[in-house]
Amino acid sequence: MDEILKLLENDARMTAEEIAKITKKSKAAVKQAIKKYEKDGVILKYKTVINKELVCDVECVTRALIEVNITPQKDVGFEHVAERIYKFEEVTSCYLISGTYDLLLVVEGKNLHSVARFVAEKLSPMPNVKGCVTHFMLKKYKEDGVILKHREENKRIAISY
Predict the structure, then answer these.
(1) Angstrom distance (rounded) from CA 33 to CA 28
(2) Structural domain total, the chain
(3) What are phi and psi of 68, to 5 degrees?
(4) pLDDT band at 152; cut points 50, 70, 90
(5) Residue 47 near residue 119, CB atoms below 8 Å
(6) Same domain, yes or no, for 61 and 113?
(7) Is residue 152 part of a domain?
(8) Helix (H, G, I), strand (E, B), or coil: what is residue 132?
(9) Fewest C-beta atoms under 10 Å: which of 56, 70, 72, 154?
(10) What's the predicted TM-score (pTM) here?
(11) Which range of residues forms the domain containing residue 33?
């Protein structure tokens, strides 16, 4: 992978000037390369990793990993079914995987019930979906290479009689 892409992947806030110093390229060349990557669809989005546990009070979302077993369609394989699934607003990521299951979804909802409703009412009834297994995410320790700090737990004082 290009050095400019590696640097931006690690820290999207880096300026063209900072990248130019590290790569020993001109600032104009770096800006031109970034603009081309954006135009060609190589750079799709600039992302901030947020430790939601530290900012989440009432409005937390529930996340689940869902393994989906599907029947591939003639002449299009998994593509058409995957496309129908990843277009649901609840699906934040969709991967074709090897192993027992065909797709791995990352799904978000307001609460456990909304994710369960998505599975029961939208995902499972689809014609080519043979089955799925839902794993609710309880806690994140690391995301996109960043170790997440956690809130200090309330330490209860032991009561003895």
Answers:
(1) 9
(2) 2
(3) -125, 130
(4) low
(5) no
(6) yes
(7) no
(8) strand
(9) 154
(10) 0.79
(11) 3-40
